[in-house]
């Protein structure tokens, strides 16, 4: 899907960018949206937003429901929300949200949320990867980082162990981005992040896509000398590198 496809579908009333838009979309100047609470039906019997519930569907499709409110929905770490990232995300886009706009609370973009939404046991990796491709076709920038975590889309995908998102993000990234570092993880790469969380699927995927297993933390050289909890990172990387070589 290209930008032209989306605009063409919009003129035909497609759900990607529908008939209502409240925010002028300017890809050159992304917006940081104010913080709001998640909108809940008045007689809702549960504490989280469920897009499959008819009452929640009414709220989701109501043009008066705002972008900040829908970002608040995306922050709910429950399967009902994360497995419907494309439905909620497209409702956000309908309201004129720029593809690189940010949630005012987390400073995360839709692509960042998408990389989280594929987490095993919580989300749907293939559905999230499909929505990520849509966002990238609309101009989502994979190198953008949250100001609070300094993590980019690849770092989130590695942290949450989502190989399909790792592949999609790296296909859209500049050469060398596979080894981009993150200050919140002692300037480790996505490979360090995945190994420190024992995200074996992400480690394997990153190594197959060219991540450097010899890359050391920029701040302290050996990670174990700085943070004992990360002392086995290189052991995990070496183990999975050896596994790949024997396959």
UniProtKB/TrEMBL annotation:
Organism, as annotated: Danio rerio (Zebrafish)
Put simply, this protein is called Zgc:103755
Q: Which SUPFAM superfamilies match?
A: Ankyrin repeat
Pfam families attached to this UniProt entry? Ank_2
The record ties this protein, via InterPro entries, to: Ankyrin_rpt (IPR002110), Ankyrin_rpt-contain_sf (IPR036770)
Say which domain of life the source belongs to.
Eukaryota
């Amino acid at each position: 899907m290209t930008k032209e496809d989306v605009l063409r579908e919009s003129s035909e009333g497609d759900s990607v960018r529908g008939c209502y838009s409240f925010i002028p979309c300017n890809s050159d100047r992304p917006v940081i949206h104010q913080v709001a609470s998640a909108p809940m039906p008045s007689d809702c019997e549960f504490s989280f937003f469920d897009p499959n519930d008819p009452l929640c569907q009414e709220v989701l499709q109501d043009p008066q429901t705002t972008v900040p409110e829908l970002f608040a929905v995306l922050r709910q770490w429950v399967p009902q929300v994360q497995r419907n990232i494309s439905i909620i995300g497209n409702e956000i886009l309908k309201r004129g949200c720029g593809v690189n706009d940010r949630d005012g609370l987390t400073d995360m973009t839709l692509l960042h949320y998408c990389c989280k939404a594929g987490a095993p046991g919580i989300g749907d990796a293939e559905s999230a990867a499909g929505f990520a491709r849509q966002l990238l076709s609309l101009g989502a920038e994979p190198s953008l980082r949250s100001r609070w975590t300094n993590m980019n889309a690849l770092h989130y995908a590695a942290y949450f162990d989502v190989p399909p998102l790792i592949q999609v993000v790296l296909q859209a990234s500049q050469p060398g981005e596979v080894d981009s570092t993150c200050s919140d993880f002692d300037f480790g790469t996505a490979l360090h992040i995945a190994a420190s969380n024992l995200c074996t699927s992400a480690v394997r995927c990153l190594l197959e896509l060219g991540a450097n297993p010899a890359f050391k933390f920029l701040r302290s050289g050996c990670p174990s000398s700085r943070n004992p909890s990360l002392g086995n990172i290189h052991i995990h990387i070496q183990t999975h590198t050896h596994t790949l070589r024997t396959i």
